[in-house]
Amino acid sequence: MTREHRLAYALVVLAATLFGLNAGVSRIPLRTGTPTDTFTTVRITAAFAAFVLIALLFDRAALRVPRGRELLLIVGLGLVGFAGVQWTYNVAINRLPLSIALLLEYLGPVLVVLWVRVVRREAVHPRMWPALGLAVGGLAVVSQVWDGLTLDGLGVAMALGAAVCFAAYFLMGEHSHTVESGGPLRTILWSFAVAAVAMNLVQPAWTADALGHDVSMLGRLSETSLPAWVAMIYVVLLGTVTPFFLLLVALRTLSATVVSIVAMLEPVVAATVGWAWFRESLTPVQLLGMAAVLGGIVMAQTARAVEPEPSLPPPQ
């Protein structure tokens, strides 16, 4: 393994860690008066502003307005891959244990392989089917379906919605290779622009009055308080912009399959955060189910006969 590859792996691990920590930090404004729609709007709008600043400093060509097929792709990515994923994800992490919310979202890559096999009729490795069975069986164990489904129904629905949006993101990202574009930064920047416009139409960012209040840090840190906007700054800079760029750099060296598998460290980090910060715990049976789901996802993500390279990092 070359030094460049080791650095790329380290970047993916750091990005996944930041995403996992972000799931915990996001709960601070979400559980203290900021509606999910408002939170999502502020996060996307502020991240878009940060990407514009980065483009101004390092790559002004990314500011050119996309046209034609590239514009259609960016509209789809913005509405589904960014606004859709983040809105459903934010609802899920607020209503479910962090580990389970992230686990359900990471079924997205499994849905991609199913789409490729069933709709596109492309060949996949035979291990796809036992992988799917392992993942579905593991989810049944985690959800404890024999006990009447002990998880919040809306939270589960939103997490599965995030998985669908996540899958659509990957499929559109693959399609971007057939569209002439101005590079990954331009695609991400304008996709965030579309997402920001859409979310501001749903819930304007300037309605986020609760972000000016002091709030509890929740869980084991409930005795400590801080301004909600401080947590929001972390969400934008260290939970969105920084990990996106780390993955962007890593994808120059590693394949999308490798990056997506290593990025599965995120649910593990989120589970650790849930236990250490929010006192969330899972039964031994649920932990076994989580292991089954993770194993099924890894098997499924490596089951494609040919893996196209997307130009974008996973959205969180």
Please characterize this protein's 3D structure.
With 316 residues, this protein is mainly α. Helices cover 69% and strands 2% of the residues. The chain has helices at residues 3-30, 36-58, 68-95, 98-105, 108-118, 128-143, 153-175, 184-202, 228-250, 256-262, 265-278, 284-301; strands at 214-216, 225-227. The protein has a two-stranded antiparallel sheet with strand order 1-2. Helix 2 (36-58) packs across helix 3 (68-95), helix 2 (36-58) packs antiparallel against helix 8 and helix 5 (108-118) packs across helix 7. The longest helix is centred in the N-terminal third of the chain and has 28 residues, at 3-30. It is globular, with a radius of gyration of 19 Å. 48% of the residues are buried. Mean pLDDT is 81; it is low at 306-310.
The largest pleated sheet is described as: 2 strands, antiparallel
Helix content: 55-70%
Report low-confidence residues grouped into runs of 5 or more: 306-310
Number of helical regions: 12
Distance between the termini: 29 Å
Strand order of the largest sheet: 1-2
Determine Rg (CA atoms, Å): 19 Å
The shape, in one word, is globular
Order of helices and strands: HHHHHHHHEEHHHH
Determine the strand fraction and express it as a percent band: under 5%
Q: Could you say which structural class the secondary elements and strand pairing correspond to?
A: mainly alpha
